[in-house]
Hints:
The protein has helices at 43-51, 73-76, 93-103, 108-122, 137-149, 167-184, 195-201, 219-224, 229-234, 262-265, 269-272, and strands spanning 4-12, 18-27, 32-36, 58-63, 66-67, 78-81, 155-159, 187-192, 204-209, 212-217, 241-246, 251-254, 257-260, 276-281, 295-306, 311-317, 320-326, 337-342, 347-351. By secondary structure, it is of the alpha+beta class.
Amino acid sequence: MAYLTLKNVNKIYPNGFHAVHDFNMEAEKGEFIVFVGPSGCGKSTTLRMIAGLEDISKGEFLIDGEVANTWSPRDREVAMVFQSYALYPNMSVYDNLAFGLSLQGVDEDVIDERVQKTARLLGLTDYLDRMPRALSGGQRQRVAVGRSIIRKVGIFLMDEPLSNLDAKQRVTMRSEITQIHRETGATTIYVTHDQTEAMTMADRIVIMKDGYVQQVGTPKEVYFNPCNMFVAGFIGEPPMNFVRRRVENGCIRIGGDVLDVAWKLGDRAAEYEGREIVLGFRPEAVEMNGSDGAYTLCGNVELTEMLGDSANVYVDMDGEKVILKVTPHEMPRMDEDVRFHIPKGSIYLFDAVTETVI
């Protein structure tokens, strides 16, 4: 039995809005799970149902095999870190960290020991006497995280904790939260709309859209084996390119180039003959010098972005807009006609109607 289990969990509000549909997931003890998806997809609502801050309309939530739908947040032994730091402005960092333990009646010597240990872990030892207003955003977020981990609960819930930080602080806090998770060993569920956070931090990712779970898998699984166009386009930066074309004699035509896709369709080649499919390829899969057996395509360069270690090249390809990710030394000039190559093993085919992978 998994440590946390959600069975067909639904959230329906009194006005009839169905925010979460038949959510199913199992999390093992100590696992780091990330819920990711666009705003309004239901990920924070699901997190709040796990925390006990929202009622579950239908379905079951189990902790260590016991149904916990009606348990209070205290009984669930969860700690939650919100998008806002939610620190007490009139208390020092030390008192913010100690406050929860004081309410539980923990002995003062034990409180001091745990505060000092948590402060060392988070690099806050020199700031214990400061007030929150004297801290940077990253330091405040460390205090918010510290206030959660000091309680030594079994479940950490984090709702977009890094969204208020600048880019450099987010990178630093990502690694710190990952390290804290390794040291505490607590089961962690982390909500974000940032797929980079999901890919770099998660043991497994739950990708959501419009209240539905689209795919659950490791970062490697959802990147290399997306189940549909939404997952394929959501995971990866820049996003996957999609080209919609009709299959004719087992091939699709893009401008003057003909691509044989019958081998990829396999036993379903006859089923898709005469129908539209969607060809997908990732910008980073593109090669400017083609390898044997690669598809060759051409287009006109509309825009280039120099990023330092790489460059994004925006190409108009027979009316289709695609992005190529190349090295700076391969970056073509604006308005230049370019030919590029896609290894056959790097293409994806999707059903144009259902948008599921073929």
